[in-house]
Every structure is written in structure tokens, then in C-alpha cells.
Design brief:
By secondary structure, this protein is mainly α. The chain is built from 15 helices and two strands. Strands 1-2 form a two-stranded antiparallel sheet. The protein is elongated.
Length: 398
Amino acid sequence: MWADWVALFIRWFHVIAGIAWIGASFYFIWLDNNLRQPPQWKKDKGIKGDLWAVHGGGFYEVAKYEYGPEQIPKTLHWFKWEAYATWLSGMLLLIWMYYLGAEAYLIDPGVKAMEASTAISLGLGFIFGGLFIYEIACRSPLAKSAGLFAVFLVLFLSLSAWLATQWFSGRGAYIHVGALIGTIMAGNVFFTIIPSQRKLVQAVTDKEPIDPQWGAGAKLRSVHNNYLTLPIIFLMISNHYPMTYQHPQSWLVLVAIAAVSAWIRHFFNLRHIGIVRPSILITGAIGMLFIAIWVSKPQTTPVQTSVESAPTIPVNQDIMALMQKHCSNCHSETPSDDIFVVAPLGLKLDNWSQVIQWAPRIHHRVSVTKDMPFLNKTEMTEEERQKITDWYHEAIRK
């Protein structure tokens, strides 16, 4: 039970930090796009653009300097800890849920049978190797063309999504693509945006010229982060929607949703500078509708379970019978339940190999928290719950 509380608090903090980070990102993109030409007296003070707003019962005046104020103020607010806190809490949650629980959440023997240490190594290599490739691309001539770099980014994330689905479980693959994108976004802040701002502040303090590349580089990374926000929000909540990550072409589902959501984000970026193109929202909505129809289409080819995953723990017919009686109506390749048409959380209990894979989770939800079966629709008795507890302690934890 205590493990669930730890997961709750980490996830809670991660969501709060993420809201703060994404909110700040959205606000500053909006702010920068809504700055207008100031009156001459402000231009004489070195102000490049200004904006007036009303909020919380008062008026706010925001000004952006062409070079900088005559004197750097004593209190200068930096927006970086939102990004760092989101990334750190996200990595902690990844370790707690998917690395310490690799056998249940990260490894799917039907995809690739491997040891937990191997899966964790692949996961970390996937995240930080992807960050390295992205950084190399951003520092190459490719970054000089926004169009070419956008094509590269789509291809890079598509390949990453496909690769993740060849290594990990559906949930594990999606969460690792999310971790990769989150690491790229936090890396943009850590490696480029904040260092560029430090150089800017130091130059203004010393009354030295400003290198335009500092601002251009930071702005480029901010734009990347802006377009990645909606895809990463989807990936953060994707574990609640197994129809996406359990689809046979789950990597393509991920890419399609990410592309459409980034396209929708483009509407709001244009809207901030006074360009209104409803066609973007319309095509985005149509795109999401087509994705929903495609994903919801019944699959004729079932996912095969790898023969490499044959369990070493002998089959317990009593436990298997309990799974079929109380669990397989929902947790199956083809659920028969009247509510769940896709296995919740992607957890399937059609065979003994899958029962062994999910044994710790089965025990916890059936015998500890006792919130499964869902609403106890199949009327599992206390004696049956005790059977699962006894089997788990004797066969799994011996």
C-alpha cells in the first residue's frame, strides 16, 4: 500500500510542476506574439514592444527591451525550475513505476523477452541517446532551415516511437517516448535557453554588445518546446487509454496523434499574432476523428505471445480458473465485458505466462486493495482472494 502512496505523491508533484512549466511556456509564447509597437517615449527608453493586460482586478503593463534596462534590477525572475522540477519528478516516476516494476510494466514477453536490467538499460539508452541525436541535429546546418528541421523531427520521433514499440510493452513504449520528448524539452532549457539568457544578462550588465545568436538559439528551442507540449500531454495521460498503446500499429497511432495535436497548436500560435485560420482546427478535428475511427476498428489479427516467455512456475489450475472466472472477461485480448471493449491498462490474462507476468499486480489489486474485480461485478469471495494470496506468497515470493 505504501508504494501506491509514494507513486501518488510523485505523480501529483509531477503534474503540478508540468502545469507550471507548460503554463509558463504558453504564456511567454503568447506574450511574445502579442507585443506591439510602443509609443515613441518608450522607444526612447529602449523598449522594443509592450502589452497591456487586465487580470485579478488590476491592470498590468509589460515591456520588452531591445537591448536591456539601463541597470539590471536586483530581483530578476528566471523561469527554469518549472522545467527542472517536471523532468526530475518525471524521471523519478519512471524509475519508481517502470524500472522498479519492470517485469509488470516495462517488459512484455510477447514483444521482446528480456531481463529487467536489459530493459532498463535500453530505456535509459533510448532517452539519453535520443537527446544526444537531437542536440547534434540542433547544432548542425540542418537547424538553419525550419522546414527541413521539422521534417527531421517528425522522422526522428516516428523512428523513436517504432523502436520503443519493438522493445517495450505498449505502456512502456509510450511512456518512454514521452520521457524522450520531456528530456529534449528540459534539455532545451538547460543547455540552450538558460545559458543564452545568462550571457544576455552578463552582456547588459557589462554594457557589451549582444550576440544575436543567443536570442535566436533560445527562441528556436522555445518554439520546439511549444509545439511539443500537446504531444507530451497526450503521452502523460496515455496509460489510461489502452486502445492507443495496445493497437497493433501503436507507434503509428502515437505519431498520428502527436502530429495532429502539434498542427492544432499551430492554430493558436498563429492566432496570437492576429492570423486566424479556422481550417487548421477543422482539419485537426477531422484528423482526430479519422484516428479514432481507425483505432476503434476491430482487429482481425490477434497479437501473438512469444514462445520465449514460457513460465518456469508450474501452472496452477485453480488460480487459472479464478482468472478465467473473475478477470478474463475484461483483461483479455477479446474482452466479453459490456463496458470494457479493450483490456484495461493493457493487462491481459488469457494464458499462464501473462498471469505470472502480472502476478504482483494481481495480488495487490485483488488481495491488498481489493478494488478488483471492478466493482466486484463477478462476486469474488474472500476465500477466493485468500487463495490468490496463498499462491502468490508460496509460488511467486518463495
